[in-house]
């Protein structure tokens, strides 16, 4: 895998709508996405995704969020 790059506005417009549709949101004040999952036996889990290497949201984060939804 090559070096991660921070998503451009155009890439975000293309990649984020499908994740927003299933409850992922951009995190205010941080270049990241998050989602809170609720479980009856574990209460809740809050997941925040951002790539340290590029200092923000990358395609790696989008891919991981998509994998989590499978």
UniProtKB/TrEMBL annotation:
The keyword Acetylation applies. Involved in tetrahydrobiopterin biosynthesis. Seems to both prevent the formation of 7-pterins and accelerate the formation of quinonoid-BH2. Coactivator for HNF1A-dependent transcription. Regulates the dimerization of homeodomain protein HNF1A and enhances its transcriptional activity. Also acts as a coactivator for HNF1B-dependent transcription. Belongs to the pterin-4-alpha-carbinolamine dehydratase family. It comes from Aquarana catesbeiana. Keywords: Acetylation, Activator, Cytoplasm, Lyase, Nucleus, Tetrahydrobiopterin biosynthesis, Transcription, Transcription regulation. This is Pterin-4-alpha-carbinolamine dehydratase. The keyword Nucleotide-binding does not apply. One of its GO terms (biological process) is tetrahydrobiopterin biosynthetic process. One of its GO terms (molecular function) is 4-alpha-hydroxytetrahydrobiopterin dehydratase activity. Its EC number is 4.2.1.96. It holds the Pfam family Pterin_4a. One of its GO terms (cellular component) is nucleus. It is found in: Cytoplasm; Nucleus. It catalyses: (4aS,6R)-4a-hydroxy-L-erythro-5,6,7,8-tetrahydrobiopterin = (6R)-L-erythro-6,7-dihydrobiopterin + H2O.
């Amino acid at each position: 895998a090559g070096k991660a790059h921070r998503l451009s506005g155009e890439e975000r417009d293309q990649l984020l709508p499908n994740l927003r549709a299933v409850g992922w949101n951009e995190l205010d004040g941080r270049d990241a996405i998050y989602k809170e999952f609720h479980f009856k036996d574990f209460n809740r889990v809050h997941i925040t995704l951002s790539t340290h290497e590029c200092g923000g949201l990358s395609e790696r984060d989008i891919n991981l969020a998509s994998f989590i939804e499978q």
